[in-house]
Amino acid sequence: MINAIILVFIGGALGALGREFLMLGIPDLSDGFPMPIFVANVVASFLLGLITGLHQRRAVTDDVNTLVGTGVMGGLSTFSSFVYGAVVVMGASATGMTVALAYLAASLLIGYAAVWAGYRLGLRGAA
Fold first, then answer.
1. What is the spatial distance between Cα 9 and Cα 31, in angstroms, rounded to a whole number?
2. Is 61 exposed, middle or buried (CB count within 10 Å of its CB: 0-12, 13-18, 19+)?
3. Is 35 exposed, middle or buried (0-12, 13-18, 19+ CB in 10 A)?
4. Reduced to 3 DSSP states, what percent helix, strand and coil does the chain have, rounded to the nearest 5?
5. pLDDT band at 81 (very low <50, low <70, confident <90, very high)
6. What is the rounded CA–CA span in Å between residue 19 and residue 40?
7. Average pLDDT, integer, range 45-71
8. Which of 77, 97, 92 is nearest to 37 (CA)?
9. Residue 56 pLDDT > 50
10. At residue 34, does pLDDT exceed 60?
11. Is 26 helix (H, G, I), strand (E, B) or coil?
12. Rounded CA gap, 16 and 6, in Å?
């Protein structure tokens, strides 16, 4: 139990740092689309699918799954940032509602596709 808590703690710190670097390095699009949050969530979705597939076929240990799947991916992507990005965009301009809805839809659809692709890749053993 203590080992899992430490792994999640370390992984969460690494994931949060990764998210912050994305926030600093990737600009929002000109229409306000929150690209850094979008990228963080899509990357985290893919990597979570990948680590889950690898874990399911026992290519990674339970500890690696906890460190990366729960810790790093939990720190890298957050639902609160996802929703906050949409709220900010909605109030930013006359087209804010349209951009926010496009962001939410793209995040869900591409996030789903990324999890699925990562999971399938992890199960195949090509990673």
1. 36
2. exposed
3. middle
4. 80, 0, 20
5. confident
6. 6
7. 95
8. 77
9. yes
10. yes
11. coil
12. 15
The tokens describing 83, both together, are 């929703």
pLDDT of residue 76: 94
CA–CA separation, 126 and 121 (whole Å): 6
Q: What is the mean pLDDT of residues 68-97?
A: 88
Q: What are phi and psi of 72, to 5 degrees?
A: -60, -50
pLDDT surpassing 80 at residue 16: yes
Q: What Å distances lie between residue 35 and 9, 21, 31, 72, 123, CA to CA?
A: 26, 13, 10, 20, 29
Q: Mean pLDDT over residues 11-26, rounded?
A: 95
